[in-house]
Amino acid sequence: MAETSKPLQNAAPSKPSARLLFVKSARYLTPNMIRITLTGDELEGFPENHEGANCKLVFPECQRDPVAFRGYFADGMPKKGTFPVRTYTVRHYRPETQELDIDFVAHGDEGPATRWAQQAKPGDFLMFRGPGPVKVPKFYARYYIVVADMSALPVAAATLEAMPREAKGIAVFEIMSEEDKQHIDLPDGIDVHWIVHSDPHVPSHAALEFIQSRDWPEGPIQTCIAGEHGMVRDFKQFLLKEKQVPVRDTYISGYWKIGLVEDQHQIMKRQEAATS
Fold first, then answer.
1. Strand, helix or coil at 142?
2. What's the CA gap between 272 and 228, in Å, rounded?
3. In what residue span(s) does the FAD-binding FR-type domain sit (predicted)?
4. Which end of the chain is more exposed for a tag (fewer CB within 10 A), N or C?
């Protein structure tokens, strides 16, 4: 398959700016997924074609004045711990209307991101930093493997939507209920499977076992695999070591870990990277 890429996909800003953005709308896409549409004058100049890139969202917590909140960022990020920061994915950006979509899993805990999203209403605000680079900037494979739990559905969906229309492969999504299935504008040659795993805090091997049960395709193969740390670890073992898929052809990333908050998970990932 000929190599294709979108313009600007590798060109993330070298120093992501902090943008004060306001909620335009908030709605449940599915019973366990909330889409927040953000807007604001500070979206001016936002890079296009960065769907699937990660970003940092800074939540105001008890700060009710957007002008005062903006002031904390006048000289860069405020002191660590001033406001909670979480990592999310750019789902859509519409430059013609300056609207940015971020999808949140409504997992019912008391974390700052979920709490904010479940209560969000027009006029609420947060600080946006980023975006980073797109996770799969070029498509050149004969076959694609895409796997995600609900935390990684946005990056998986954005990757599928950016693929060449003639792409072939498989996508496996773990969701919390049948009603959490989403419409994704994916190529006709992608075989989609939805696996219901009602409690994401219980380890699951269903996605890996499903991929292992299939006939192994001819390469080259590219992957976009993300979600809970244990699932991702097992996929790395299978793909990189057992199947010898080149690292350069894979995006495989743990987005969270059962029992850890994001800050703890990020520390663990850095420690693992340093010893690998």
1. coil
2. 15
3. 16-138
4. C
Residue 117: closest CA among 216, 36, 8, 1: 36
User: Tell me, what DSSP letter sits at residue 180?
Assistant: G
What is the assigned CATH class of domain 19-133? mainly beta
How far is the C-alpha of 225 from the C-alpha of 222, rounded, in Å? 10
CB 70 within 8 A of CB 20: yes
The alpha carbon dihedral of 187, 189, 190, 194 has a sign of positive
Kindly write down the DSSP assignment for every residue of 10-49, as one continuous string. T---SSPPEEEEEEEEEEEEETTEEEEEEE-GGGTTPPSS
Q: What are the structural domain ranges in the chain? A: 19-133, 143-274
Distance CA 207, CA 194 (A): 9
Q: What is the value of pTM for the model shown?
A: 0.89
Torsion angle of C-alpha atoms 50, 52, 58, 64, degrees rounded to 10:
80
Q: Report which DSSP code applies to 83.
A: S
Write out the CATH class of domain 143-274: alpha beta
> Mind listing the pLDDT tens digit for each residue in 165-195?
999 999 999 999 999 999 999 999 999 999 9
